Amino acid sequence: MRAQEIRQAYLDFFQRQGHTVLPSASLLPENDPSTLFTSSGMQPLVPYLMGEKHPAGVRLANSQLCFRAGDINEVGDSRHNTFFEMLGNWSLGDYFKKEQISWLWQFLTEIIGLDPRRLYVTVFRGNESIGVERDETAREIWQELFRQAGLAPKVLDYSSPINLDEGRIFFYGEEKNWWSRSGAPDKMPVGEIGGPDSEVFYDLGADRKKHENSRWRDKPCHPNCDCGRFLEIGNSVFIEFIKTADGFAPLRQKNVDFGGGLERLAMAAQDLDNVFATDLFWPLTQAVEDLSGRKYQENRLPFEIIVDHLKAAVFILSDPLGVKPSNLDQGYIVRRLIRRALRYGRVLGIQKKLWLSSLTPLVGKIYENSYDYINQQASDTGQILAAEEEKFSRTLARGLTEFSKLSGTERVSGQAAFNLFQSYGFPLEITTELAAEKGLSVDEEGFRQKFREHQLLSRSAAAGKFKGGLADHSEMTTKLHTAAHLTLAALRQVLGQHVLQKGSNITTERLRFDFSHPEKMSPEQIKQVEDLVNGWIKADLPVKCEEMTLENARATGAMGVFASRYGDKVKVYSIGNEIISASKEICGGPHIVQTGQLGVFKIIKEESSSAGIRRLKAVLN
Ligand code: SER
């Protein structure tokens, strides 16, 4: 089965089980100050998992584009990607373990035809100290399904050493079978949600079990041992807890959050031993073979890094919410991806100028008919990539020469690493990798110190956004979100109806708001917008939410820049009373209930964002 067919079959299957299929949310999260990228399908759904009503119902499914910067160093083990698609289905307080596990089994064994004998599963062992029981329910459901398939599924409690041949279902502790965005229970901040999970693994076969670089080569094998034999293909999380100051409390509703990587499902269904040979990558892998005259099978690592990073960069650059390479936040990550790919191009001896950007249309081709915006944007994306490529190619060779001069030392100082960054554009990991090849270490903290001194690392990045974390629905961000609606309405009154929202980003300190407008705003216009918004705040207007079909919402004149995200039924937030109608927008929320709570609105900056797009920053005092 081709990957596109697997994706479609999954969405169709869950639609038949009563799920509403949603489009993928943007890779760049909106209104979520805690993280730079969407890294799981559940991330945009956090408010709904916590109990807010979702306009599309209680059963949802989608294929979510995900990016995990934290996995950048995992790329190269044949199964990890920074960018991937996660097939997901959710029960928002509706069905639970029985349906989830049975449907998943049916999808894996009947729809995509995986052999039950090659499936292994894990469940949560339980932990008294956090008050969560051993998951005998999930264990029993799995055991019955295996039995029906004619297998005798022995259950084992994982402990080392283990004899794999005896087990099919394994109990593990919270280090393996607990999921939250921050990880194990003790890593979760107060307010975060999570729960025990149950993972499914696909046996790639004992003959190819030991990845050559694996530190597990000579150790006994079990599903979670990472030796390369077992591939995790899906994870059902039973999100039923919220972390509180004194432990865990049950959520208002028991949810299911399933996620399965499309690339890995394709790898299993296509019976391959690495994701880069699936049809989601192979045309690119082959193109790099042609460009370099080398063979993937002979030296996989550089190919995997190039192909992974290229695809991630193309998706991030083409995202409807848009980001360009820069030294800040998401822009900095995309720049690092491009540069690292170029460096590995050199390792493979690729000579051709602008070779990386020339591969952009191929990425579009792989995703034809599923993410067509990649194709529509291909020429712009290609140009941005080419400009980056040109810029870095000019300094890469000189930087490498400069690096080779560092040889007599054992440790590359923070200053030297920073010079390589500043003069030759070497991101830290390039320097670290080059150093490792020569057996040198790098003073990474020293580098970061220099970096901070030069204020290249943004405050948000320094605040830990790269790590991911809980969506912050704190009071201030909710207020700023409501202020964003008022801002759009006021801009349209002052500047004209051509003004549309082009993006927004909220931190606990300020609102950043991008909008279409051809010229700089005058000080008078800025003042008028502030006065309008503050007038609405003073009038203490109620904020009301109504659910309706997208067509009805459009008919009432609701603004809806990101409307397509919510499927058929949408939420419309109106701000106003019988006399004043300030704003009406399609939006997922959350919002405050009365504008009087907002304080004083002030625009602190107005500047150009890109051609035809202005950006303002505003605060509430
Ligand atoms: N949120 C879980 C994960 O990312 C399952 O969707 O693995």
TrEMBL record:
Native organism: Candidatus Falkowbacteria bacterium CG23_combo_of_CG06-09_8_20_14_all_49_15
Entry keyword set: Aminoacyl-tRNA synthetase, ATP-binding, Ligase, Nucleotide-binding, Protein biosynthesis, RNA-binding, tRNA-binding
PROSITE patterns, alphabetized: AA_TRNA_LIGASE_II_ALA
EC number(s) per entry: 6.1.1.7
GO biological process: alanyl-tRNA aminoacylation
CDD domains per UniProt: AlaRS_core
Family, as annotated: Belongs to the class-II aminoacyl-tRNA synthetase family.
NCBIfam families per UniProt: PRK01584.1
Chain ranges of the Alanyl-transfer RNA synthetases family profile domain: 1-621
Protein name: alanine--tRNA ligase
InterPro entries: aa-tRNA-synth_II/BPL/LPL, Ala-tRNA-lgiase_IIc, Ala-tRNA-ligase_IIc_anticod-bd, Ala-tRNA-synth_IIc_core, Ala-tRNA-synth_IIc_N, Ala-tRNA_ligase, Thr/Ala-tRNA-synth_IIc_edit, tRNA_SAD
One Pfam family hit: tRNA_SAD
Gene3D superfamilies assigned: 3.30.54.20, Bira Bifunctional Protein, Domain 2, Threonyl-trna Synthetase, Chain A, domain 2
GO cellular component, one term: cytosol
Top EC class for this record: ligase
SUPFAM superfamilies assigned: Class II aaRS and biotin synthetases, Putative anticodon-binding domain of alanyl-tRNA synthetase (AlaRS), ThrRS/AlaRS common domain
Single GO MF descriptor: tRNA binding
